[in-house]
């Protein structure tokens, strides 16, 4: 029987790449995004036996409903991947309070809420694995991304602490921190300038990040860790 995995933010970018990799491994997937149509298109492209759901992860009731639907349609959750996130670049003094709140609610609070719901199910069914998608910006910082950096740094601290809380229940919690990866979020960046700071000399591909996620999902003795996938990035410009 294939494992059940919920992928929040699974309709595009890194989340979609993770979904495609896990589908090839025989997992039954719940593709969750705010836009139901996009989630449905992704789920259909993976073949039969997958579920598409709409959810605003910053709203606890919507998160609860999503997990109820997953349980009802696919069964108990084995894996959770949190790839949903938003970014509102700008210097702190120019950032509106509502943009601060939206980033923290989606990136950090949303991760907390989905993990809380998943852990309840995983404890009942004796084990599971969670991978939260952070960012190298949350580790190294970057001018013009102070709020985004704070939300992603929070994910690292949260995940390390949660890993200690649930380890005795055979639940593992880890973080993947990507660098510059080809996604919609990085499409506006000046790639030729930025890749000079990357020893491998290029932006990464979402599927390369997905390989790191798969490693952490399947590694039985790795928890509370942050795996950096940034091509050896030396600094942020």
Characteristics:
single chain; 237 residues; alpha/beta; Rossmann fold; 7-stranded parallel β-sheet; 8 helices; 7 strands; 16% strand; fatty acid biosynthesis; quinone binding; 3-oxoacyl-[acyl-carrier-protein] reductase (NADPH) activity; NAD
Structural commentary:
The protein has 237 residues and is an alpha/beta fold. It has a single domain, classed as 3-Layer(aba) Sandwich (Rossmann fold), CATH 3.40.50. Helix content is 45%, strand content 16%. The protein has a seven-stranded parallel sheet with strand order 3-2-1-4-5-6-7, with helices on both faces. Strand 2, helix 2 and strand 3 form a beta-alpha-beta unit. The protein is globular. The model has no long low-confidence stretch (mean pLDDT 94). Keywords: Fatty acid biosynthesis, Fatty acid metabolism, Lipid biosynthesis, Lipid metabolism, Mitochondrion, NAD, NADP, Oxidoreductase. Belongs to the short-chain dehydrogenases/reductases (SDR) family.
Provide a short characterization of the protein structure:
The protein has 237 residues and is of the alpha/beta class. The chain has helices spanning 13-24, 36-45, 60-73, 97-124, 137-140, 146-166, 191-194, 206-218; strands at 4-8, 28-33, 51-54, 79-82, 128-133, 171-178, 226-229. The protein is built from eight helices and seven strands.
Helix/strand layout:
Elements: E1 4-8, H1 13-24, E2 28-33, H2 36-45, E3 51-54, H3 60-73, E4 79-82, H4 97-124, E5 128-133, H5 137-140, H6 146-166, E6 171-178, H7 191-194, H8 206-218, E7 226-229
Parallel strand pairs: 1-2, 1-4, 2-3, 4-5, 5-6, 6-7
Helix pairs in contact: 1-8, 3-4, 4-6
